[in-house]
Specification:
Helix content: 40-55%
Distance between the termini: 30 Å
Number of helices: 4
Structural class: alpha+beta
Largest sheet: 2 strands, antiparallel
């Protein structure tokens, strides 16, 4: 008989982000809960809200839109690399 146990100790895979003097860890998509991932995929979360859970709003507010887009692209790529599939598949 096959068996699986879920919900035990979790290893959270993250993207380390350096902004100014600070370093922040953002969980990759595979480490998010289903509800967090659904919010991102359904557009319920604008991206800013997601990143502000892990990087203080005051720090996010200092980024240019180009820098924020770089952050988003780096997170997406790291998540895809870790999962072995493109997000959205």
């Amino acid at each position: 008989m096959a068996e699986i146990t879920l919900g035990s100790k979790k290893t959270v895979k993250t993207l380390k982000v350096h902004i100014g003097d600070g370093t922040y860890s953002i969980p990759l998509s595979g480490s998010l809960t289903i509800s967090e991932l659904r919010a991102l995929k359904n557009g319920d979360d604008d991206g800013f809200t997601f990143f502000e859970k892990y990087i203080p709003k005051e720090v996010i507010d200092t980024l240019t839109m180009d820098e924020f887009n770089q952050l988003t692209a780096a997170w997406k790529k790291a998540s895809e690399d870790q999962a072995g599939v493109e997000l959205g598949e």
